[in-house]
């Protein structure tokens, strides 16, 4: 089972994003932002989470 959490450390503070608590469109926004910032590990975790848990969203609203 894959993690449903993303752990970040920014400015010396730890943060956790609970992917299961995020709306699908918010996850896509986070995914785009992480990609633009070059945060590959976060991109991979969110992409896999979307595939595993939000496939219906991806089918209805394909990312181009």
Task: Briefly note the structural class of the backbone.
Answer: alpha+beta
SSE run: EEHHH
Work out the radius of gyration: 12 Å
Helix content: 40-55%
Shape: globular
How many independent structural domains? 1
Described by strand count, sense and barrel closure, the largest sheet is: 2 strands, antiparallel
Identify low-pLDDT runs.
none
Mean pLDDT: 83
Strand content: 15-25%
Major beta sheet, strand line-up: 1-2
Helix count equals: 3
Q: Give the termini distance in whole angstroms.
A: 28 Å
Number of strands: 2
Structural commentary:
It is a single chain. This protein has 64 residues and is of the alpha+beta class. The protein has one domain. Helices cover 52% and strands 19% of the residues. The chain has helices at 24-36, 40-53, 55-60; strands at residues 5-10, 13-18. It has a two-stranded antiparallel sheet with strand order 1-2. A hairpin with a 2-residue loop joins strand 1 and strand 2. Helix 1 (24-36) runs antiparallel to helix 2 (40-53). The longest helix has 14 residues, at 40-53. The model has no long low-confidence stretch (mean pLDDT 83).
Brief synopsis:
The chain is α+β, with helices and mostly antiparallel strands and 64 residues long.
Which helices and strands occur, and which strands form pairs?
Layout: E1 5-10, E2 13-18, H1 24-36, H2 40-53, H3 55-60
Antiparallel strand pairs: 1-2
Helix pairs in contact: 1-2
Organism: Racocetra fulgida
Protein name: 13286_t:CDS:1
List keywords for this structure.
64 residues; alpha+beta; globular
């Amino acid at each position: 089972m894959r993690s449903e959490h993303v752990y970040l450390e920014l400015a010396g503070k730890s943060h956790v994003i609970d992917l299961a608590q995020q709306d699908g469109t918010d996850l896509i926004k986070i995914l785009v932002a992480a990609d633009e910032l070059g945060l590959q590990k976060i991109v991979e975790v969110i992409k896999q989470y979307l595939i595993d848990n939000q496939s219906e969203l991806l089918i209805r609203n394909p990312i181009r």
